[in-house]
Amino acid sequence: MATDSFAQTLTAKQPRLLAAFKHIIAQNHLAHAYLFAGMEGAGQPELAHWIAQRLFCLHVTDDGEPDGTCEECVRIANGSHPDIVTVAPEGQRIHVDQVRYLKAEFSKSAVEGNRKLFIISDAEKMTASAANSLLKFIEEPSGNVTALLLTTNKQLMLPTIISRTQVIEFPPLNAQALQQTFEQAGIAPNQAQMARSLTSSVTQAQALLEDDWLPQASQALWRWFERAVKGDSRSFVAVQVNLVGLAKDADHQLVMLDLIAALFQDLLQLHFQVATTALTFGQYQQELTALTTRLSDDQLIAATELALTAKRQLASNISFQNVLEGLTLKLWPIFQTNA
Ligand SMILES: [Zn+2]
User: Fold this and answer.
1) Per-residue DSSP letters for 145-167?
2) Ligand 1 centre and the CA of 56: distance in Å?
3) 80 close to 74: Cβ distance less than 8 angstroms
4) CATH code of the domain in which 40 resides
């Protein structure tokens, strides 16, 4: 990665957040723990590394930018700076041992008096014991230490962690710009439209589209959904027969639940007639519109809440199949009056 690319990327993706953190650091108001939350590709790692360079750079420019070329900046860009410790999942999880290592580094810095910065990627993947171990540390901050937790799934973070960090929400990238970026990367326009409601990252979008996974998954979900909202018992069977096989790993399971939530979001948008241009399931707009005209506000809101709860259930170790079957059973009575 080029040494000046953090600022460049952020200027394109999150100019307001970049300006805000420039100001915060210039005023010496940096908090000791932040949670950077937003879609994949929204710029969380870039901002974390920009902050690192800004804090350690030997020649900060007059307008508050790290120069990107000094010894410190170069080591940060290379990921080899001794005072910046990065923790990322090993396998699917961040384990308690990794947090213990981090805490040991923290206490060293307290003795040495050096500034240290900790970056925890995919922080929602901390095990409960890792999170609890980190919690104690965040509660008793020591002088020159800043912790940056990055996540693309804030709803999976423990509330106790969220409440002890300053949460910075990264807004989704501008829809038009994202559509253009995806299309330039060779993604078909209708697929780009669907992918950008799930991710802001070209790499992740391409991974989801590999072997036509995303179109297949959305089609299967749509067939399940059409039946579920009619209380058709075949929707229950479809979970095991059609959906479980598509969710081949934990990431794809989460994306499928995101797609279900997006379906209900589309319905809500059509129902309340707001911003209908960016439907995730745009290819089913006619059917969705027909459906929304015979649903009440209460039905839609209740169903949307259920869809959002599904993701938390998955995080609490209920199997994907059980989560979806449970959701199907709960949807039936909500929509029964319109069958
Ligand atoms: Zn520098």
Assistant:
1) EEEEEEES-GGGS-HHHHHTSEE
2) 7
3) no
4) 3.40.50.300
Q: How far is the CA of 67 from the centre of ligand 1 (A)?
A: 4
285 CA → ligand 1 middle, Å: 51
CA of 74 from ligand 1 middle (Å) equals: 7
User: CA dihedral in degrees (160, 89, 167, 268; nearest 10)?
Assistant: -90
Do 138 and 183 share a domain, yes or no? no
**Cα-to-centroid distance, 62 and ligand 1 (Å):** 13
Determine the distance separating the centroid of ligand 1 and the alpha carbon of 104, expressed in angstroms: 27
Give the count of alpha carbons within 13 A of 226, CB side only: 14
- Same domain for 59 and 32: yes
The pairing of beta strand 145-151 with beta strand 166-169: unpaired
Give the single-character DSSP code of 79: T
The Å distance, Cα 59 to ligand 1 centre, comes to 5
Q: Rounded distance, CA 54 to CA 63, Å?
A: 11
Strand order in the sheet with 166-169: 84-87, 116-120, 145-151, 33-37, 166-169
Distance CA 237, CA 325 (A): 8
Three-state secondary structure call for residue 169: strand
- Distance from Cα 82 to the centre of ligand 1, integer Å: 15
Whether residues 329 and 192 share a domain: the answer is yes
Q: Among 326, 325, 180, which residue's Cα sits nearest to residue 239?
A: 325
143-165 confidence digits (pLDDT tens): 688 999 999 989 889 899 999 99
Q: What is the pTM of this model?
A: 0.72
Q: Using a pLDDT cut of 90, give the percent of the chain over it.
A: 53
Q: Residue 227 sits in which domain range?
A: 175-338
281-295 pLDDT, tens digit per residue, is: 988 989 999 988 888
The count of structural domains within the chain is: 2
Residues 83 and 218 in one domain: no
Same domain, 14 and 155: yes
The reply to whether 142 and 181 lie within a common domain is: no
